[in-house]
Amino acid sequence: MTVVRRVLEMHGGRIEARSEGLGKGSEFVVRIPLLPRSKLAQPKSAPTVALENPMHHSRRVLIVDDNIDSAESMALLIRSWGHEVSMVNDAASALERAVIFDPEAALIDIGLPDMNGYELARLLRASSNGSELHLVAMIGYGRAEDRAAAREAGFDVHLVKPAETDELERVLSQGRLIS
């Protein structure tokens, strides 16, 4: 929900959530302007698409997060930037999907149900494509020891959840990811 709210706010929109109580469902209202006010007075120019930018490189991104809502929101956001996304909710599925999908980058939640993200990173690094795979740790903590553990496990980048959209976009758009 945080990612969705931030994306909407970046486009001048907002989201509202309503419920009449437990068991009565929820209603989400999304409002987004058709055209930002700042664009109304400007002369028309040719539309641009992120993929047309020679500096932008579309990537195959694997998202590994046991929180399905978080994973789906992240996938939606990353697809909106022009990347191809595959999403799984546990480490075993991530190992299988990595063989088929051959990701260039993987966003990995550390707290997975079947194996922690550090061990998953080590296994992905040991795979045939592991040296080319850019690993991004997604964790709720930003302490020095958390960053050190991520680095030791083979992650290229450590991001604190919820990640800032600007930072995540920067990380995915770089040629070589670094922490």
| Overall pLDDT score | 81
Strand line-up across the major sheet: 4-3-5-6-7
**In DSSP terms, counting alpha (H) and pi (I) runs of 4 or more, how many helices?**
7
From the helix content, strand content and strand pairing, which structural class follows? alpha/beta
Number of strands: 7
The CATH class name of the largest domain reads Alpha Beta
Helix share, percent:
25-40%
* Shape descriptor: globular
Q: Which oligomerization state do the chains in this entry correspond to?
A: single chain
Largest sheet composition: 5 strands, parallel
Q: What integer value in Å does the Rg equal?
A: 18 Å
CATH architecture of the largest domain: 3-Layer(aba) Sandwich
Low-confidence stretches: 40-55
The CATH topology of the largest domain is given as Rossmann fold
Explain what you see.
With 179 residues, the chain is α/β, with parallel strands linked by helices. It folds into two domains: 2-37, no CATH class; 57-173, Rossmann fold, CATH 3.40.50. Helices cover 37% and strands 20% of the residues. It is built from seven helices and seven strands; from the N terminus they run αββαβαβαβαβαβα. A five-stranded parallel β-sheet has the order 4-3-5-6-7, with helices on both faces. Helix 4 (91-101) runs parallel beside helix 5 (117-126). The protein is globular, with a radius of gyration of 18 Å.
